[in-house]
Design goal:
The protein has about 260 residues and is of the alpha/beta class. Helices cover about 35% and strands about 10% of the residues.
């Protein structure tokens, strides 16, 4: 959207381990961008089947408490959007169709470029489809799903939906840990991996709606992301090997590339 992460506000649909884990990383990344501790938690809210997760709720899991809002109870997700005015909604609820037309129109009313991330999978569990997100937001949505969706034609534009998949991060984390002999895996490594992925999204990718690099270039993406993670490992003194002069070349040398001898 062109707006720094530090100025974003997110509302999660879902308040389980997946949502809280993602919310924790968002908070850490926002804090790294200078958002004060007193403010950062108010920028990330959770909403579950009981409504907005608030501090005065009687039954509250310990892992949800850091995100419990000091706010009056809100039982309706559309009302929560209109009241909290998030810049993005993140679906990790596994409730198929939860981002219905009313929800998407609401987030589009309070944002010029609403971020709609329907990350539940498989497709039957997705909070909305790419076509619904683009159609109901009049083509203004920044969309990604947890399941693959085909290109969407809206007006004179064709959008290519991105898929938020572990394939962008986990192999790169594994490669960096293997190559450096890292003593442990930290949240900072995952934030570095996410930054490494984002850095490879080009203006032409963004122009067609992609918020992730094309899967067709996944090997190159993984190697570059692994290098970013390795930098963190070396900087924090977590590596068991000496820091190389060229980290990118070091990572590339460690990659297994199958080469088959022709038998004909």
């Amino acid at each position: 959207t062109g707006t720094p992460l530090a100025l974003q506000r997110f509302l999660f649909l879902g308040a389980g381990s997946a949502a809280v884990g993602t919310a924790n990383l968002l908070v850490k990344a926002m804090r790294d961008e200078g958002v004060p501790e007193t403010e950062v938690r108010s920028r990330v809210a959770l909403f579950d089947r009981k409504g907005l997760v608030t501090a005065d709720r009687e039954a509250l899991h310990d892992y949800q408490r850091p995100f419990a809002q000091r706010h009056a109870a809100i039982a309706d997700f559309v009302a929560a959007i209109e009241e909290l005015r998030p810049t993005g909604i993140i679906g990790l609820s596994t409730v198929g169709g939860a981002f219905d037309q009313h929800v998407i129109e609401a987030i589009a009313r309070v944002n010029e470029r609403p971020m709609i991330f329907a990350y539940s999978n498989p497709t039957s569990r997705s909070e909305c489809t790419a076509e619904q997100a683009y159609t109901w937001s009049a083509g203004r949505a920044v969309f990604a799903g947890g399941s693959p969706f085909p290109p969407v034609r809206f007006g004179d534009r064709t959008f290519v939906p991105g898929q938020g998949n572990n394939v962008y991060v986990f192999p790169a984390i594994g490669m960096a840990v293997y190559a450096t002999g890292a003593r442990r895996v930290t949240d900072e490594m995952f934030i570095a991996a996410a930054s490494g992925v984002a850095e490879q999204v080009t203006p032409s990718d963004i122009a067609v709606g992609l918020v992730y690099p094309p899967v067709s270039a996944i090997l190159e993406t993984e190697l570059r992301v692994a290098a970013r993670v390795a930098e963190v490992i070396f900087e924090r003194g977590l590596a068991r090997v000496e820091r190389p002069t060229d980290i990118h070349a070091f990572i590339r040398e460690k990659a297994y590339v199958p080469r088959y001898r022709s038998l004909v």
